[in-house]
Design a protein that fits this description.
The chain is an alpha/beta fold. The chain is built from 9 helices and 12 strands. Helix 4 packs across helix 5 (166-178) and helix 5 packs parallel to helix 6 (196-211).
């Protein structure tokens, strides 16, 4: 089995993946963005996706959360095919109610914060639990304060987004996703829109979530974060998974020349301490 087709399974675990992509294809017009992508994510696993711009990383995340429709292949959530898939030779499209129920269990944090400017921090965090989950406001407020505590922003509950720094706004976005009690969290370059001095405060929250056992799929250019936190690092290029493995292996002894080229460029630019070993 070659690297591009490999479907990784956490070492020593026979558990059913919580998310599985099976031979996913996605195009925008004539531009092929994902080509035959297969990936499994186990419950509690942190998977970091790295690669050059235009590799298809963000599109893959958006397909997991059904923000983009796939052209072919199957997405499984908790062992069951979802959204659009083939069954007994026929294409099945899930009803909106099932799609909404699945998406409610998959939190996503974007590059831009996308907060409602007219709502307070607390209002932003309770919006989805109240209007999507139909929770009583009192219950939603109670949990919102818990998740705001988790991201260190209890004291900002009554502030408005324009009164917050970029790092604080992104932490509110994380709290908003956590308020839905998701089973999986997707992060799409969550620190790329931040000033360098604000990146650390967001990464600290993400590290804490990883320590608490949150299942996370993280598209990132933060190589130190991927090296320290990820259970597995996936390198993508040209719409395909080129290589994947534990960070201690992928960062120091990549098998693919394309991976090595990318890491050499990134680590040199960032002043990384380690060079990947030569490819045999």
């Amino acid at each position: 089995m070659n690297d591009a087709a490999e479907v990784a399974v956490v070492s020593g675990s026979d558990a059913q993946p919580i998310v599985q992509l099976e031979r996913i294809w996605k195009s925008f017009g004539r531009l092929e963005v994902l080509t035959d992508v297969s990936l499994s994510v186990q419950k509690g696993e942190v998977v970091c996706i790295i690669g050059p711009s235009g590799a298809g990383k963000s599109t893959m995340l958006r397909c997991i959360n059904h923000l983009e429709n796939i052209d072919d292949g199957t997405i499984h959530f908790e062992g069951k095919p979802v959204y659009r898939y083939k069954q007994n030779g026929r294409v099945v499209v899930d009803p909106d109610s099932r799609i909404e129920a699945i998406r409610a269990q998959i939190g996503m944090v974007f590059q831009s914060f996308n907060l409602f400017p007219h709502l307070t921090v607390l209002g932003n965090v309770i919006e989805a639990p109240v209007h999507v989950l139909r929770e009583p406001i009192a219950k939603a407020r109670e949990r919102a304060m818990v998740v705001l505590g988790k991201v260190g922003l209890v004291e900002k509950a009554q502030a408005y987004p324009h009164q917050l720094s970029g790092g604080q706004q992104q932490r509110v976005a994380i709290a908003r996703a956590l308020a839905m009690n998701p089973k999986v969290m997707l992060f799409d370059e969550a620190t790329s829109a931040l000033d360098p001095e604000l990146v650390g405060e967001v990464l600290r929250v993400m590290r804490q979530l990883a320590r608490e056992g949150m299942t996370m799929v993280v598209v990132t250019h933060e190589m130190d974060f991927a090296r320290d936190v990820a259970d597995r690092v996936v390198f993508m290029a040209d719409g395909a998974i080129v290589e994947q493995g534990p960070p201690e292996v992928l960062f120091t002894a990549p098998r693919s020349p394309r991976t090595r080229q990318f890491l050499h460029s990134i680590l040199n630019r960032n002043g990384g301490p380690e060079e990947p070993s030569p490819v045999p």
